[in-house]
Amino acid sequence: MNSDSLVIAGRTYHSRLLVGTGKYRDFAQTRAAIEASGAEIITVAIRRTNIGQEPGQPSLLDVLPPTQFTILPNTAGCYTAEEAVRTLRLGRELLDGHALTKLEVLGDPRTLFPNMPETLKAAATLVKDGFQVMVYCSDDPIQARMLEDIGCVAVMPLASLIGSGMGILNPWNLKLIIEQSKVPVLVDAGVGTASDAAIAMELGCDGVLMNTAIAGAQDPLLMAGAMKKAVEAGREAYRAGRMPKKHYAATPSSPGAGMIGQVAT
After folding, report:
1. How far apart are CA 263 and CA 265, in angstroms?
2. What is the DSSP letter of 28?
3. Which residues contact 208 (CB under 8 A, 6 or more apart)?
């Protein structure tokens, strides 16, 4: 077994890349991109994607069955704690009691920045109701700690605004959250390209969740594969431990002393 597996709510995953299912051309492209990414956990917006709430209509579960993937229902499009709780209860019913969920309560439709008071309120209700809550949040270490104290199984601070592709704008706050957290920390929102994902992993994040960075690429399947490699490389680099940064080369790669054939003085 891989000793560096990701563990969320007691379950082990080998991929640290989580992928959304929105914005693709059709379900066939969605499936192809997920396969190329190697993701095991896939997020589904209950308010936007049919997973059984519209009988007789094409269902995402027909192409991404729960027997092959961990379906992570999310509350995209919810702006109050009440909406989010109601949506996830529906998701749990549709998925036969599935407890693992992704909570996001948005502050406004323009920025999609999280509404943290409503997020905290919803998280408390959901945890009490038996949900295993992975939660989208601001990159505020205090708020992240509060969510962990409530009982969330993972905190998911944004790198930058949802769908912006701006990458990681505040690595220092992410580091603070990573250093204090006893649950997995996954970057959620703002990743634009493979280097963004690699940087998140090099910082010490446990994983990265993305949707638009893959679905919005000119070649989603190629980008999905690139993201898979970036997450793996970033994690390996983090575990390896990078060399210290220096303003000058005190120890050059090709030193003048100790060369073969050099006569000692």
Report:
1. 6
2. H
3. 16, 17, 18, 186, 187, 188, 191, 197, 200, 201, 227, 231
Longest dimension (CA), the chain: 87
Which residues have C-beta within 8 Å of that of residue 112, sequence separation ≥ 6? 106, 161, 162, 163, 189
Tokens of 141: 């270490």
Decide if 229 is catalytic. Answer: no
Phi and psi angles of residue 185, each rounded to the nearest 5 degrees, phi first: -115, 120
Q: What tokens does 110 get?
A: 């323009």
Note the pLDDT tens digit of each residue in 129-184. Answer: 999 999 999 999 999 999 999 999 999 999 989 888 899 999 999 999 999 999 99
* Tokens encoding 223: 């980008």
Catalytic residue among 23, 102, 128, 182: 102
Amino acid at 63: V
Determine the length of the chain.
265
